[in-house]
């Protein structure tokens, strides 16, 4: 598994973000029964940068906590059965790993939301990564039932790695 992490802000998080990423990303893939070694990019940035990305890609001109950019088109959540039909689209030719996509997190939102919800910054970052990993595996939360499914899965992934509120 390859987890590429870039810290692109001068805002300090004071969290071992590499440990959190290395806990949650593989745990989410195991939980979702991904049958491949995978590659995920995690970018930690600030509100200004994430607002610009949010505006450019989603036409929402405000900062958000996390953005997910999946590389796979899923017909059904975590159904990886079709990816071998398009190896050149979904796999890194150098490593053979499945390219899942990018996670972009606002460090400022991690700090703000950890305080707002009364838990640690580690837990908030873990939550945002787990949430985004589910998006990279084809989940969404546009409907109430979808939101409930995602919330349950997030909670179970986090609990499995010892990240509690």
From TrEMBL:
Cofactor(s), by name: Zn(2+)
SUPFAM superfamilies attached to this UniProt entry: Metalloproteases ('zincins'), catalytic domain (SSF55486)
Enzyme class: hydrolase
Superkingdom as given in the UniProt entry: Bacteria
Keyword rRNA-binding attached: no
Metal-binding is among the record's keywords: yes
Leader sequence residues: none
Primary site of residence: cytoplasm
Note accompanying the cofactor annotation: Binds 1 zinc ion.
Binding site for Zn(2+): 131, 135, 141
Subcellular localization(s) per the UniProt record: Cytoplasm
InterPro entries, A to Z: MetalPrtase_cat_dom_sf_prd, YbeY
Keywords, ordered alphabetically: Cytoplasm, Endonuclease, Hydrolase, Metal-binding, Nuclease, Ribosome biogenesis, rRNA processing, Zinc
Pfam families the record matches: YbeY
Function: Single strand-specific metallo-endoribonuclease involved in late-stage 70S ribosome quality control and in maturation of the 3' terminus of the 16S rRNA.
Family listed: Belongs to the endoribonuclease YbeY family.
Name under which the protein is recorded: Endoribonuclease YbeY
Species the sequence originates in: Ventrimonas faecis
Lineage, uppermost ranks: Bacteria, Bacillati, Bacillota, Clostridia, Lachnospirales
């Amino acid at each position: 598994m390859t987890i590429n992490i870039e810290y692109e802000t001068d805002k300090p998080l004071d969290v071992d973000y590499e440990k959190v990423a290395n806990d949650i990303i593989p745990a989410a893939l195991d939980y979702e029964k991904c049958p491949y070694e995978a590659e995920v990019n995690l970018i930690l940035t600030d509100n200004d940068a994430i607002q610009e990305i949010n505006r450019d890609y989603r036409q929402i001109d405000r900062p958000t906590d996390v953005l997910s950019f999946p590389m796979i088109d899923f017909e059904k959540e975590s159904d990886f059965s079709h990816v071998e039909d398009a190896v050149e689209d979904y796999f890194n030719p150098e490593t053979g790993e499945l390219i899942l996509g990018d996670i972009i997190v606002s460090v400022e939102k991690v700090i703000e939301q950890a305080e707002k919800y009364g838990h640690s910054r580690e837990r908030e970052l873990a939550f945002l990564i787990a949430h985004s990993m589910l998006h990279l595996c084809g989940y969404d939360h546009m409907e109430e039932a979808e939101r409930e499914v995602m919330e349950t899965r997030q909670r179970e992934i986090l609990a499995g790695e010892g990240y509690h509120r």
